[in-house]
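Please, structure for the following, as tokens.
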Amino acid sequence: MSETIVIATRASALALWQAYYIQAKIETHFPQIRVNLNPITSNGDKILDKPLALIGGKGHFTKELEDAMLCGEAHLAVHSLKDVPTYIPERLELAAITKREDQSDVFLSHTYKTLESLPYGAVIGTTSLRRRMQLLKQRPDLKVKDLRGNVNTRLRKLAEGEYDAIVLAFIGLHRLDLLKEIPFVQKLDFMIPPMGQAALGIEILSDNERLQEIARFLNDEESYLCSTLERDFIAKIGAGCSAPVAVNATINKETVEICAMLGFPNGTNILEAKLTAKRESSHTLGVELAQIMISRGALEILQKAEAIAFKDEMPERI
């Protein structure tokens, strides 16, 4: 007897790639299950005239998908994990995290080979306060300009000369096979990624045993551990998805390391820290790292960072 499972997904090209990827994995492993997609335009996909960091609130890319599950229009949702707030609504559960792939941020340009070769005062595009902070820490002379839209829109703006260079996540470009379109590509190894980058979060209705079984199959234990530590850090420090915060946990044999950076979006007032532990005793590392950074003034830095973010776009808040 066949079963039908409906996946809620954002309607962007990358989100659909991710949903089709999960659809194929489920249907291959569970041949009696047919998986359908329910593409939804999220609030974050609709608001393209200002940075999300200025809008306030959380879940700009997840709320509509969660609402679809709660009202019976979908059984599970496939998210880019970095977009999933640390608060999950009642009756839902972040039940699986897929194996993480390359977490790199990449420099893209049609004119300049590397970040280092950009001329003084060059215009570089990103909306991420995390990227802005780390770029300006390296190159305080650069002019960072807001960059919204889906991946193809951002690449078109680069090709049309609105920017000397832009910075995007490697994984999205790789999945959509778009890297070959860009003359100059440089992985920015100095950049610490955001919580959850390059992994998919599988959110399900929590009272469904069949969905729990599917989630167990999709879950990658190491990615789940690392991402959970990162999410614990973000939750403890109270940072939203748009804050100038970078955090990354990694596993090397039986040692777990978590490092974090936060500061002002202009690359100043940077606070960095890291912790390591044996894997069997690592479950509190995210909270511990947050407590260390809070004791060093992290909350005050983030409060001031929010006040000065995108000051060119919002002078009334300065």
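The longest strand covers residues 3-10. DSSP finds ten helices and 13 strands in the chain.
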